């Protein structure tokens, strides 16, 4: 069980993040990186989400919750509610939706259409249903570093787009056009809502429900060109016949991306501790030039090596 001191140290280390005018959602406690394997605590614009990846932490959750409340209130940080999500391994797929539904442990539930701010863009988040909330908090630094590349404008293809936040951020920072591709209609609908929330006009053709490989092949055939491609795939996913795994498919995807991004940029990511920076780099063609390589931001400290490898590559 994490002591009061361990939680306090983690939260106080991040106190400066609460003064940001651009971002009001970030990590307060990052598992082993903050000295308690299996415990994640995130702050979302006045709400705290505790996630337990280790069932042995269950007996302590109300103490963890009280510690958080006390530490945050002595720093005058508002906490309207604290929720708890079970992230322990689930063997029965039938049970997953129920188990991943958060429960309220203190205060009130977030309001309907609850939104947060990250890098000065607004995003709806769902702290209750499902595994992910709608925003990946670890992408903050990557998005920030991308800003200067967007200033000259251009067209973006956002593969595996999820709730569309790379596109919203790019369009708010200089790009003129973005297309969002994902296999899930549910996330595409959420991406459209994020466009509206950020006052961005859209056309239904900007949201494509398709396997990303099929989409890329179609664009190559039609000789479509993009200035930027975001390639931020899951480490592994299975959707009907369209499986994706970094191990087997990454290089093939990069080859397809090259066809539609000549003289442009590809932001490619891998989020897995098992993949080293060296492995990540070696997946890319030799003639691509690395512009920058980013990892998780400061609120995601790690023990041995970073999870996130995100590089922007110039494609000749
Ligand atoms: C890790 S998320 C991407 C995160 C996103 N780039 C962001 O920053 O918010 C993975 C997404 O890939 C989608 N996905 C998985 N397999 C796919 C496939 N074969 N084709 C298209 N989308 C897929 C999932 O529906 C999910 O929305």
Structural class: alpha/beta
The stretches of 5 or more residues where confidence is low (pLDDT under 50) are none
The major pleated sheet works out as: 7 strands, mixed
Q: Return the string of H and E elements.
A: HEEEHEHEEEHEHEHEHEEEHEHEE
The CATH homologous superfamily of the largest domain corresponds to Vaccinia Virus protein VP39
What proportion of the residues is helical, as a percent range?
25-40%
- Average pLDDT, rounded to a whole number, is 95
The number of distinct helices, counting runs of at least 4 residues, comes to 9
Q: What is the terminal separation in angstroms?
A: 52 Å
CATH uppermost class of the largest domain? Alpha Beta
List keywords for this structure.
316 residues; Transcription Regulator spoIIAA; Rossmann fold; 2 domains; seven-stranded mixed β-sheet; 29% helix; binds S-adenosylmethionine
Account of the 3D structure:
By secondary structure, this protein is α/β, with parallel strands linked by helices. The protein has 2 domains: 4-111, 2-Layer Sandwich (Transcription Regulator spoIIAA); 137-315, Vaccinia Virus protein VP39 (Rossmann fold, 3-Layer(aba) Sandwich), CATH 3.40.50. Helix content is 29%, strand content 27%. The chain has helices at residues 4-13, 61-74, 96-99, 140-150, 165-172, 185-197, 212-221, 246-260, 277-282, and strands at residues 25-30, 39-44, 47-52, 81-86, 103-107, 115-118, 121-124, 155-159, 177-182, 207-209, 228-231, 236-239, 242-245, 264-271, 289-294, 308-315. The longest helix is centred in the last third of the chain and has 15 residues, at 246-260. The chain binds S-adenosylmethionine (SAM). S-adenosylmethionine (SAM) binds at residues 136, 139, 160-163, 165-166, 182-184, 187, 211-212, 232, 234, 237, 239, 242, 244.
């Amino acid at each position: 069980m994490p002591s009061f001191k361990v939680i306090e140290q983690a939260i106080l280390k991040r106190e400066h993040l609460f003064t940001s005018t651009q971002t009001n959602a970030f990590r307060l406690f990052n598992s082993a990186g903050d000295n308690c394997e299996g415990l994640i605590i995130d702050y979302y614009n006045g709400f705290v989400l505790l996630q337990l990846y280790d069932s042995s932490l269950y007996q302590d959750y109300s103490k963890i919750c009280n510690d958080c409340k006390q530490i945050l209130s002595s720093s005058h940080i508002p906490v309207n509610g604290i929720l708890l999500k079970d992230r322990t391994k689930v063997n029965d797929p039938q049970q997953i939706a129920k188990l991943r539904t958060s429960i309220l442990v203190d205060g009130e539930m977030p309001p309907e259409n609850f939104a947060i701010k990250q890098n000065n863009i607004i995003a709806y988040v769902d702290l209750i249903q499902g595994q992910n909330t709608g925003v990946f908090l670890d992408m903050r630094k990557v998005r920030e570093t991308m800003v200067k590349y967007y200033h000259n404008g251009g067209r973006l293809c956002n593969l595996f787009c999820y709730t569309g936040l790379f596109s919203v951020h790019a369009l708010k920072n200089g790009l003129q056009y973005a297309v969002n591709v994902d296999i899930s209609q549910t996330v595409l609908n959420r991406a459209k809502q994020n466009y509206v929330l950020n006052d961005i006009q859209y056309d239904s053709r900007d949201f494509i429900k398709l396997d990303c490989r099929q989409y890329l092949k179609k664009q190559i055939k039609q000789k479509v060109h993009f200035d930027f491609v975001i390639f931020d795939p899951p480490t592994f996913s299975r959707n009907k016949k369209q499986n994706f795994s970094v191990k087997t498919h990454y290089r093939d995807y990069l080859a397809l991306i090259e066809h539609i991004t000549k003289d442009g940029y590809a932001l490619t990511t891998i989020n897995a501790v098992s993949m080293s920076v060296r492995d990540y780099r070696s997946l890319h063609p030799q003639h691509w030039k690395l512009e920058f390589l980013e990892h998780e931001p400061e609120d995601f400290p790690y023990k041995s090596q970073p999870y996130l490898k995100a590089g922007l590559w110039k494609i000749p």
